[in-house]
Amino acid sequence: MNIFKTLFGIESFRIKKTCLFLPFLQKNMLKELKIGKLIRGRLYAYGENELFSVIHTGLGAPLLGDAVLYLKETGCKNIILFGSCGIVKEKKDIGIDSLLTPDRCCALESFSDMLLRGSKKDINVFYPDKKLFNTLLNKTSDIKKVSAATVGSLKLEEDYIETLDKKGIDILDMECSALFSAADKVKIKAAALFYATDIIKKTPFYRDISLKDKKKFDASIRSGISRSEERRVGKECRSRWSPYH
Question: Which of 107, 146, 151, 219 could cross-link with 124 by S-S, CB 3.0 to 4.6 Å?
Fold first, then answer.
């Protein structure tokens, strides 16, 4: 059995040097990425354009972390996670429609750990590749540097607001720490780019989305994808993560 093809829907040699990971497919994402449709495997779905591979990982740390590990034997050298996040507390320069990249990510991936830990235990922290992170951050002043935490429960995250705010955590997601830890394990460079869709408790994910907010999300997605495809990059950027080399 060809395990990789079974899981991803394609042969491993198809994987390009740079991969864009999408935990969730928003409407029109594929169109913005210039991809007609995805090839579906048992766990993941695959698409590509002339620049990079796109992998729809599904939601959650286990699926995305495993996808990174499976890429170890491919030609992948760089992974960019592009997904949504929630803001712990709204700040002057961080709000809904912001584009954000974390310089560190705390791991609260386990539901049971979140349920039972309280606020006393230390939290493991993982980091993006420094050069890749800086390249992404320096692409445009629109992208803000933040600290993140990956959570294992959308309900329990509300109980951690004060604890995480005291630790300097700006945003919450469900995959980032798995990306950073798995990428470090298999020696693939990784960084993440998020668009903010909610503010915990103030404008939670389960609210009715207003037309105004929907337009903001759509604009953020288009902007984030354009950052991933930006051709006017310097020599240093091309040598580090851009698919143009």
Answer: 107
